[in-house]
Amino acid sequence: MTNHIDFQKIVDQALSGILLLDQNRKIVYYNQTSLQLFNCEPEKLKDLKDFLHPDYHEVCSQRLNRVFSFHETAEAMEQKLVTYTKEIIDVEIKAIPYDLSDKTLALIYIRDITKQKLAEKLLSHNDKLASIGQISAGIAHEVRNPLTAVKGFTQLLKEQVEHNYLETIESELDKALSTLNNLLQVSKPDLIDEARVPIRLCQELDSIVFMFQERLYNIEIHTDFKDRQQVFMGKKNILVKAFFNLIKNAIEAIEGEGKITIKHFVKDQVVHIVISDTGVGMKKEEIRLVGTPFFSSKPDGTGMGLTQVFTTVQQHQGEVHIDSVKGKGTCFYIMLPIL
Ligand SMILES: Nc1ncnc2c1ncn2[C@@H]1O[C@H](COP(=O)(O)OP(=O)(O)OP(=O)(O)O)[C@@H](O)[C@H]1O
Ligand SMILES: [Mg+2]
Mutation test of ligand 1: which of 212, 251, 285, 298 has the most ligand atoms closer than 8 Å to its C-beta? Predict the structure, then answer.
């Protein structure tokens, strides 16, 4: 039976990338899955270090030392690889001593966990939103009622006495109530469940750009709308608000002159909307924080714009990706599946 088993084929088709490294850390064997993982031709696959993210060079070298010098297994550890085409992927790597004649090699298993990591990130983001949502919805609800009463009494007072402070009191109360309503909308989106209607997103994007016209004297807005006729079934009010928030952020990110590009196209039954700006950009830590309610770097920002964007996209089973470089600009990719 064993004679008929094609072990090479079994190893080649394994879910993990499998490599053998010699004492000089050179790759002396690889399976087909490794080539797919590294996205490269066999002749380029010589040294694992070429594909290891620089953050992991040191730890990988220590782990291999343990394998070669102490004959110990380096258990599965999460690391990052950079493929030949410069994509960064999340992987789990395990290294085991492998004796061949009088030499010890390192047998390396590499499992692609990019999808798993993405799912975990989305889940934890949803969890974070859900718990912050519950707390803030509770507070917003409790504070809104007395404020509404104060507003009512202010209006009554205005009918009886004249005082110029009363106007200010009323307009400040309106601001506070609008903030609370926004908060309720993003933290308890199910409370205000909107029906899905057919929307032509390009038309809506055109109207939003038009609304910002007067603020655009030193900002060039370029639109590249493909598949203009595409009809998307979605919750119109919140989608328009989300794109409004994204374009507003892009405009606010530009100090002085700059350019904003808005793209729309459909690919594989998914509507893609890409909004990029040449503004101030964000650091990695900032990218991680955006979408958390109240996170804002602006003196008068509420920090709820992107929370609204995330909840809206989530309600449409879509995805948001952010690319941003400090000092260079930011790009928001919104993907909305056509259901
Ligand atoms: N296009 C962008 N470029 C650079 N930074 C951005 C961009 N979009 C968002 N940010 C950062 O994310 C933060 C949060 O954005 P968000 O829209 O949630 O709130 P805000 O814009 O600060 O306030 P509000 O939307 O209520 O006016 C911003 O304060 C800013 O630091
Ligand atoms: Mg904003």
Answer: 298
Indicate whether 64 and 120 sit together in one domain: no
- Which of these three, 69, 85, 112, is where a domain ends? 112
On the CB side of 66, CA atoms within 13 Å amount to 12
Ligand 2: centre distance to CA 248 (Å): 6
Q: In the chain, which residue ranges form alpha helices assigned H by DSSP?
A: 7-12, 32-38, 57-70, 114-160, 164-187, 201-211, 236-253, 284-289, 305-315
Last residue of a domain, one of 76, 95, 112: 112
Q: What is the pLDDT along the chain (339 residues), one digit of tens a residue?
A: 556 788 888 899 899 999 999 999 999 999 999 999 999 999 999 999 999 999 999 999 999 999 999 999 999 999 999 999 998 999 999 999 999 888 999 999 999 998 888 878 777 766 766 666 677 777 887 888 889 999 999 999 999 999 989 999 999 999 898 888 777 776 666 666 789 999 999 999 999 998 888 777 899 999 999 999 999 999 998 999 999 999 999 999 999 999 999 999 999 999 999 999 999 999 988 998 888 877 889 988 888 899 889 989 988 999 999 999 999 999 999 999 998
Same domain, 78 and 155: no
State whether 259 and 330 are in the same domain.
Answer: yes
What is the per-residue DSSP string for 278-331? Answer: -S----HHHHHHTTSTT---STT--S-HHHHHHHHHHHTT-EEEEEEETTTEEE
Determine the distance separating the centroid of ligand 1 and the alpha carbon of 149, expressed in angstroms.
32
Residues 268 and 330 placed together within one structural domain of the fold: yes
Evaluate: CB of 308 within 6 angstroms of ligand 1. Answer: no
CATH number at residue 20: 3.30.450.20
